[in-house]
Amino acid sequence: MRAYIIKRLIQIVPTLLGITLITFVIIQLAPGNPAVFKVKMATQGQVASDAVSKQIIEQTKKLYGLDKPLPVQYLLWLKRVVTFDFGNSYKDHRPVMDKILERLPITIQLNVISIFLVYLISIPCGIYSATHVGTWLDKFLTLFFFILYSMPNFWVAVVLIMLFGGGDFWDIFPVYGISSIGAHSLPFIPWLLDRLWHLVLPVICLTYGGLAYLSRLTRAEMLEVIREDYIRTARAKGLSERVVIYKHAFRNSILPIITLLAFLLPGMFGGSVIIESIFSIPGMGQLGFEAVLARDYPVIMAITTISALLTLIGLLISDILYAVLDPRIKLE
Amino acid sequence: MKKLVLVLIVIAALITFFNLRKSEKIGSTSEGKTVKIDYSHPVPGDWLIRHLPAEPSTLNPILVTDVYGSQIDGEIFDSLIRRDPKTLEFIPQLASSWEISPDHLVYTFHLRKDVYWHDGKQFTARDVKFSYDKIMDPKVDAAPLRNYYRDIKKVEMLDPFTVKFTYSQPYFRALEFCGGIPIVPEHVFGEKDFNQHPFNRAPIGTGPYKFAKWDTGKEIVLVRNENYYGKKPYIDKVVYKIITDNTVAFQVLKQGGLDLMGLRPIQWVKQTRSKRFKKHFRKLKYFLPSYNYIGWNNRRIYFRDKRVRRALTMLVDRQGILKDILYNLGVVVTGPFYINSPAYDKTIKPYPYNPQQAEKLLAEAGWIDHDGDGIRDKDGTKFSFEFLISAGSKFAEQLSTILKESLKRHGISMTIRRLEWAVFIQQIDDRQFDACTLGWSMGWESDPYQIWHSSQAKKGSNFVGFVNKEADEIIEKARREFDAKKRNEMYHRFHRIIHEEQPYTFLFTMNALVAVDKRFQNVNVYPMGLEPREWWVPVALQRYK
User: Fold this and answer.
1) Residues B463-515 pLDDT 10s
2) Most buried residue among A117, B42, B56, B287 by CB atoms closer than 10 A?
3) pTM to 2 decimals?
4) What range does the domain containing A34 cover?
5) How far is CA B420 from CA A218, B245, B341, B391, in A?
6) Is B441 on the interface with A (CB under 8 A)?
7) What ipTM did this prediction achieve?
């Protein structure tokens, strides 16, 4: 087991290198150059003569380190990244790490709450559906989750804002930001409530779409397991239905759900551009999106590298969890 | 069951909490029903909460490139001189007086001696010199700004309160540029890298408002500078709320969470008609110097002939588009100057929507459907071109669809190509386009050199490749003409040439649409927009403390 983990950890290094190299090349291949973009954007393209325009752009390229050949740029980047220095953003010259750390907490809060809610709601619903196959409630849940699944979240977000945000209907929830004016001076409990109150609408938008998939998955897995012989045996032993379902059936059906955990880790790191923009939440999604639009290479590289690393770690963890939960699986 | 109870408790707590906050909000709002409102004289107090659609990248006036950062900097930093909002004449600000040499090459500014930076240090000519040096320093990320100061030969400090700018050639906008140079305090910047200095997110200026705080992604707060050398503003605090989604911002405005916000045409026309809205908000509509246009790449075989360009203009139903898409919230323009400035020749009337005339012009230019496939051709080339738009611009989307339909009816095939903004700019910069739609915004006075001089056609902003000898001569001569009246006469002639040549199909100058909370008094619209530092709120109506 230990040998396996060490082997996998070592494998992460070349994979990660490959990912960063490909990302680096793809970004460079994309049309649009950050230096040209910055100069043209700011002057509305009103840069004076040929010579001046060229000179100004060359100066800006040099400032951003874009004047060196590509392989050199990549190696320089790599050298810095080993020490977790992702360089400075072209946009405001702040260290990329600072910008990410500033936005990470709120993204994690949103993701943890919504993922937790997805699991909390869909697993019991899946189990219920599996044990009550064909009842009207099972059918209703299926239909309901699929309706939710098909509603685009930008539309739901706007509808929720119109209904609950104090336009012409109810004024119950705040519609933008993550805390009230002056909330940072509140004691912890009121601060927490204020924060939760702000997160209600965005969390709803992030949660409802995920219910269908997970509840269907649980239902299907449960149905398969319930038909197994050992469940009949358990029933024949005279165990209570509760024990049969939760101890014998459910435990064996959660394996595929573990696979999903692998993607939780990078999922925590990435944000939703749409929901963040609508609710004015300064999270990771907006940071990444703006960076791509402005060709802010250091920020794009940092976000991809960290997400890739987290995905690799997530995969490793889920593999280990398999072995822990299912004695039949052996890792070598 | 236990869980259900827990959930209920949490919900109950949330609701109580929200009600509590709500009552607080109402408590602090003076409804003014019983209190008498005194409108007789301006009083200090209250906050102004403004909308910011995106976060600025920096607040350093030398590095700032986005319009949001510049707007905030306008409150924090004063420049040597400024334009009077009413008369648009230059008036003293940090400089108490200035002299211009007879050859218009040397500008000497005498600085006020009673100006202090927000941190208490005195403002001197050293700061001006330092700022100029930083702008010109290639290690400073101020390339766009540097472009405006390239004609300055040197900046000298004659004594701590006198500074002299020497130009290498006379230019009619020189005073505007050297008098408006952004000035930062020298003493704050040490050896540290200018681009990364903490100052950039916590600026220190000389203006009527002091920087108070910047919460990333949430808000930027300014407070009144109590030691301001000039007339202090009445409003205590200006809060810029960052709300990225326009619909949400509008909702917040209606709730009373914003005091000032720009509206979209549809909001102006359809969503602000309720009694409640009218009771709380004043709607203002005014022009700002900008226009949008369709640019024809004059190098392309289709658009080489001015008759074709004129015909294309006649195929765009500008009045119709203005009425149907833009709710008539703008005006059709015919040339490259601000419609309310004296440089604009109002006697030039826009070409009307006239398909018959357009067909005639196209035939004259040789574009006739020879092979009967429904598309005009000339010398074996079909009139089939690509129209570049920036993805995400709703107006460009609508305009291009209308244009496509209209051209199709008259034998011209047009395909629409949507590009992401960064790529769009690159394509225009490389001259890889047939036609596109964009806009320019200008100052009160503008110099057509950058957009229309033939020297700019290869790599500069004259991306449509407009080349006209007479126009070149006028542009060059006007740059050295310091008599505004004579210059405007030249510009009228230039305007006429542009109108005849139609290198662009000029579209509209749109109205700026704004909603302002009614509690603010003395809200005036000036030729260059609003002046919130004149606003005040009667004591009984003041909402924040």
Assistant:
1) 899 999 999 999 999 999 999 999 999 999 999 999 999 999 999 999 999 99
2) B56
3) 0.82
4) 2-81
5) 41, 19, 34, 5
6) yes
7) 0.74
